[in-house]
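Hey team,

Filing this mostly as a record. A colleague (T.K.) asked me to run one chain through the structure pipeline before their review meeting, and I want the input and output archived in the tracker in case anyone asks later how it was produced. No errors, nothing strange. Just documentation.

Input sequence:
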Amino acid sequence: LPLAASGWLDTTRVASGHIEMWRQIIATNRAAVLDATDVLLAKLQAMRTAIADADDEQLTTLLNEGKQIRDAVGN
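Output structure:
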């Protein structure tokens, strides 16, 4: 948290929401949430591996992929 900047509140907005509402949303969409979690875990593992291996080419590729997805969503 000492390194958190101004984007922290926006990034963690869902975490500040109503717990029971989010529990119900996740429970209702359990399979999709599990699938999305698996994708996230795989991306995080790829990122971790690239960092640990000092694989700057792979790290750049992963960062570019993230940027392209973010840019496609827009504001």
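Quick notes for T.K.: The CA atoms of residues 31 and 37 lie 10 Å apart. The first helix runs from residue 8 to 11.
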